[in-house]
Amino acid sequence: MVQNYEDFCTHLLKSGFSLGGGSDKGIYAIVPFDWTEQPADTPVRWHTGNPDTDPWEWRMRVLEERSDIAYAKLFFRGSGYITREWYPYFLAVRRQGRTFEDAWESGLVSDLARRIYRTAEENGRVAMHDIKRLAGLSGETSAHIEKAMTDLQMSMFLTICGREQKRNKYGELYGWSSTVFCTPEEFWQGEEFPDISPKEAAERIRARALELNPQAQERKIKKFIYG
User: Fold this and answer.
1) What burial class does residue 25 get, using C-beta atoms within 10 Å of its C-beta: 0-12 exposed, 13-18 middle, 19+ buried?
2) Number of domains in the chain
């Protein structure tokens, strides 16, 4: 059982990926318990605000302090982590060799998702409150926006890259922090990933998932891989 943030990062870099949110969903999670549970063999506790022992804080720490771990809504439409080593495999499976334009022309992307993606692509790293303004989402429901944002993260055309507070007209920060999004290309600073076939990528991920959890069911592994 992990004891702190450094433990978490060490385990994550070894495993390659992990579900977030305190549940392994039948696959694998480095922190397999949520805020309702209090295991006696670890000081790790959810929602305490302690940056060293609160997993809720770790999701932003890895984005702000490291350059080798991605975090977003990646698995079962919920949160998860993927290391740089394993990112190309998931990218190959989720995108299936398609560019965003390919996905759009094939009818795999909604108009709302396209507007959101274009806003991120054109503005680099952009906070959620700015995406709503720049993409003209004032007429959209929160549920529709949330679905589009999750769709883009699951298909790995968008990822979380930090957090940011709003500024008033005097340039002063105020309010709660808002999630910042960008494209994976922006997140990894244009890094060239190896060209991997979707089939090979899926086989590698499946094998790794079974190493981490030999009891994982095939149907869950398939959903975990393909989203």
Assistant:
1) middle
2) 1
